[in-house]
Amino acid sequence: MTKSPETRGPAIADLSQRHNALLVLDVDEVVLQFITPFCELLEDHGAKLHAESFRLTGNVREIATGAALSGHRLDDITEQLYREQEARQRPVDCAQETLGGFADLADIVFLTAMTPSHYERRRRTLDRSGLLYPMIATERSKGAVVAELCERWDGPVVFVDDLPPNLAAVRRSAPQVRLLHFMANDVFRPHLPPLPQGAESATDWPTAAAKIRTWLES
């Protein structure tokens, strides 16, 4: 029997709606640092990231032997980071103040693919960083979730994520949504796969804010 994808957080029907416009944001590498604390945790395990392609598997190697860490071990380390995120993950520069500047334009929702069982830890991490917006943690396709959000918000909708496949999923399921690629840490940027047609990119929150405001005001 196939397990249904898990989702934690408020139901879409229960989200507060003050505006017709909506800003949907990924969390890791968009509003919370992921790569930097992940690399710090790798050092605790005697390993180091060598970003030679756009993936973790094969690019994380033991410092002593040079052997690549298995996907299973990387999954375990990622889960450790999520368990310890309250101590390890810090907000991305300018994220909190930038999002506060959109309060007059749009509602804001976080949409994360983090393992939903860590929902309460992430909620506390965001709250302590002043990022108080509702969050949905899901194993479902982000495209499907954004499409459902678009059934409630009939104004401009903007989706921000660090992974091109997630942007592509939203393009397929909700083609009217404006897409922005944002990745706070630049280590993987030289190896990015192509962005979906129409997507734009930003490398810091001041640049991202200008693009998002233009879209939300359209």
What would your notes on this structure say?
This protein is α/β, with parallel strands linked by helices and 218 residues long. It folds into two domains: 7-33 and 90-217, Rossmann fold, CATH 3.40.50.1000; 35-87. Helices cover 34% and strands 16% of the residues. The chain contains eight helices and nine strands. The strands form two sheets. Strands 1-6-5-2-7-8-9 form a seven-stranded mixed beta sheet, with helices on both faces. Strands 3-4 form a two-stranded antiparallel sheet. Strand 5 (107-112), helix 5 and strand 6 form a beta-alpha-beta unit. Helix 6 (142-150) crosses helix 7 (164-173). The protein is globular and about 55 Å long.
Going by CATH, the homologous superfamily of the largest domain would be HAD superfamily/HAD-like
User: Low-confidence spans: pLDDT under 50, at least 5 residues?
Assistant: none
Count of alpha/pi helices: 8
Specify the helix fraction band. Answer: 25-40%
Biggest sheet strand line-up: 1-6-5-2-7-8-9
In terms of DSSP E residues, the strand content is 15-25%
- Bulk shape: globular
Q: How many runs of DSSP E, i.e. beta strands?
A: 9
Second-tier CATH architecture of the largest domain: 3-Layer(aba) Sandwich
The number of distinct structural domains comes to 2
Distance between the termini: 46 Å
By secondary-structure content and strand pairing, the structural class works out as alpha/beta
In round numbers, the mean pLDDT is 96
Oligomer: single chain
Spell the H/E element sequence: EEHEEHHHEHEHEHEEH
CATH topology of the largest domain: Rossmann fold
CATH top level class name of the largest domain: Alpha Beta
Rg is: 17 Å
Major sheet characteristics: 7 strands, mixed
